[in-house]
Input
Amino acid sequence: MSGVVNLRTTLEQIPEPWVPAIVGELNGQYVKLGKARDSYVWHHHELEDELFLIVQGELHIHLKDEAGAESVVTVGEGEFYIVPRGVEHKPVARDGEAHFLLFEPKSTRNTGNVDHAYTIEPGDLECL
Amino acid sequence: MSGVVNLRTTLEQIPEPWVPAIVGELNGQYVKLGKARDSYVWHHHELEDELFLIVQGELHIHLKDEAGAESVVTVGEGEFYIVPRGVEHKPVARDGEAHFLLFEPKSTRNTGNVDHAYTIEPGDLECL
Output
């Protein structure tokens, strides 16, 4: 992981949605690339903020405030959004896939506080 | 800084090269956007790895190994490169400007160990 990483060509190596791969590491953080399709699962990360940078397509990040009220943030190609720690969120790609870069601490678990079929423990993520 | 950030439109607000602005904060790290033109100054960051993601143009990152031998890594649009802590480096944009995103700890000083006309203390960076 010490060379130049091309986002689009590396994303081509990711076979399925919601299985991000590690493509960089710095300062205790991972850079990951992933694909979104349809709806993910509601979850939050207790101690970690999470950055989504969209490489291709459009990601709709559903959010719940402390009272449980929902809102949606739409993040397009070349845009990023940071989900603050503790905030319930559910990423959704509506029209085909959205391809994204994640920047988050190495300890971050993909489904946060929730156990789900999508759960991959941080130590089990593939490196590309 | 709690909304969606569009990389290209936010870069339009940065008036001059080598004066990055803070556009996001997460987990003790800053996301910055900046412009490169011509040659920067040789420097290193003792304790901090630094990620350059190129939004537009091409950035040539000159590197020195421990023996002082030089090499150059060319990072194009949609690509990133991580300069490991301690490594002497000098970013250069040859043909016009290169626009980039930086991920690095909040403590990172732009010219690292070197005092230079380009030096901006971390607390003096502008937020967009």
